[in-house]
Amino acid sequence: MEKQLDIIASDFAALYHEMVKHLVLTPHGLNMDAFQAVFDRMHVEYLHYAGSSTTQPFYMDVIENVLQLAAAYLSLPTDVSPNSRAFGLYLVFFLYSTQPCIESSPVSVRIALGTLQSYLDDIDDTAGAQQTVFSQLGRRVTEDERRILLALHQARAWHVMPFVDVSLHLQALLKAHDSEGVPLVMSAATKRPQVLSTVKTDGALSKELEAYEALKRRLGLDDVFGMR
To answer: This protein's superkingdom (predicted)?
Structure first.
């Protein structure tokens, strides 16, 4: 599994690099059309078919690894990795919708309660700071991000869980991004232990089942995303 994650992560890092080169991962550059243009040009959806043959066109475990590795970007704290969460959300959206079995039995995306709750909280905070000028993505949540979150929720793409172990996925991503020359964290040498420990802390906090049920109720209301 680790070798497969490393291979997928290297392609994700190359995609991220292209996004940076074309100034997509900025408050004014990030939108569906800009992201899709780079995504389509690099044929990232082909990762779903890794290891396929004429008798076995795709493998479910490969699809799951592709989706979960993309979702791992959302676990990185925005204060040390300001572009990762938005990049990961767009990546999850496009990979989920292009998976081979989307029409019959789509593979869902496991996500920790704490990770999704943090995103929803930042939606509220962004709405309360409409006049603020943002120089980077960070905790700011764009209108397209809200739409993507809602679309994935309506498609039942999320499998919200109290805790999801993404340690192997994060290690693969951090290593691949370092090799690609686009480190995920602002100071890779000093921040990497903080990144991993923060994820574990968030996971521990998300074991509150009462909060889990509250989040599920909250997700049932479309206006939480400021939309109808």
So the answer is: Eukaryota
